[in-house]
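Posted in: Protein Modeling Q&A

I'm a second-year student putting together a small comparison for a lab meeting, and my supervisor asked me to include a predicted structure for Formamidopyrimidine-DNA glycosylase. I've never done this before, so apologies if this is the wrong subforum. The sequence is pasted below exactly as I got it from our records. If anyone can share the structure token output, I'd also love a short note on what stands out.
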Amino acid sequence: MPWNSRYRPHWPDLHGTGHNALMPELPEVEALVAFLRERAVGKPIARVDVANVSVLKTFDPPVTALGGLTITGVTRHGKFLDLDCDGLHLVLHLARAGWLRWSDELSPKPPKPGRGPLAMRVRLADGSGFDLTEAGTRKRLAVHVVRDPADVPGVARLGVDPLSDEFTVERLHEILTAAKRAQIKGVLRDQSIIAGIGNAYSDEVLHAAKLSPFHPCSTLTDDEVASLHAVIVDELSGALGRAEGLAARELKDSKRSSMRVHGRTGEACPVCGDTVREVSFADSSLQYCATCQTGGKPLADRRMSKLLK
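Accepted answer (user: helix_wrangler)
Welcome! Here is the predicted structure, written out as tokens:
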């Protein structure tokens, strides 16, 4: 069945024009990894056509070098997808509005370069393959062809994976201590510190942990750090479980319905019934519950937000 009719994830506000675009984060990228392992591994690449050259972030090896190689593995580095093609790596980052559209029967005609959403097409030898598209005007979709995934700057600077054995309570304590008085929301989203958590899941983690998004990292007690660690692992593991094996429409609805505060401004908090509030920034926003997270004090909705006195 074509990816775009069953398996394609439909992210709300995927055009990236709104603050609450549910861009793919660790659980959703892991779901894509599982899908591509099932559909693409073991198949030779017939050709790669680039419709928008701006998505290519590398030139050596050239993208044409992928033609004739076989996809031997698919993995994830944070939010990066990594397709191993006989030792060359096609590394993709879908960013805010990127889209992977699988088809069991791609059109045999090469795509025409233009200003449309299509950025690149990977056609496999059996006629199947996928298109990479990106909606909106802010183009952040990134494609790398490298000999080693660590050659991708974004991969090289990734922090610890929150679902790996390295992510222990002690490691989290070290991270928060080093962050000093930095706000916890920003640290959770920083891919160079913890890889894979974005805007949506950081909101959910902080709500479950009953922490203000602007809580200074180094002031957390040992018990709060242990609780935060457990919440991070539980939230991401739960999302992985919900995403496993879901069709596209179900994946979208599952992610949206699982959010307690993210993207739910004005709705009732499912824990206490208070109204979910929002703080807006230049190109993003966060959602939180004042009763659950800030002692009932609303956060100032301005770019450099602080707790209202």
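A couple of things worth pointing out for your meeting: The first strand starts at residue 45 and ends at 50. The longest helix spans residues 222-243.
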